[in-house]
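Researcher: Let's try something more involved. This one mixes different molecule types, so please make sure each is placed in the same coordinate frame as the others.
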Amino acid sequence: IAGITQAPTSQILAAGRRMTLRCTQDMRHNAMYWYRQDLGLGLRLIHYSNTAGTTGKGEVPDGYSVSRANTDDFPLTLASAVPSQTSVYFCASSLTSGHLNEQFFGPGTRLTVL
Amino acid sequence: GQNIDQPTEMTATEGAIVQINCTYQTSGFNGLFWYQQHAGEAPTFLSYNVLDGLEEKGRFSSFLSRSKGYSYLLLKELQMKDSASYLCAPLDSNYQLIWGAGTKLIIKP
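Model: All components are placed in one shared frame. Result:
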């Protein structure tokens, strides 16, 4: 693994189904983030984690949950998917959550909820 | 509230210079980032400004005026590969990035 990876690349999901988007980084970064990106809107923060064992809510957390059991992994779960969660989801990481926290992004997961 | 304002789209000619402006209002301020995002790809880091003034990095430069809540990204000697969206993102008092919708830059031969 080099950098930050996400799986799956894309997914079509029936409404009401549970789905977990995976994110793994091998850069030993402390902070990790989940964003969604919709056409015409900026990236919106869903959840974040400043360090392993801690998580926080971003701008649009409803309908999503995360966990950070270790430094490398930061899965995002949709408990019961709805069509409004159709989006491109990006996972990102940064060395710290403070100044100059250049974020490195994964390739994204394109999710369609029908 | 927090707000980022960038032009939606700009067009420029190969070899020319283009300036992409960004105005922002945030709860606190801890610097401003510019990212580049090619269509269908992830954003990648371009620059970071925390003090007023110009930061130059090759063909790209970024300027910040904290008192005016204003930044711009200057791209020189434009190449076709510079066709992308450019995202302005200030860092607020909680060290969270607040993302603009981005400026789509179209480069014409």
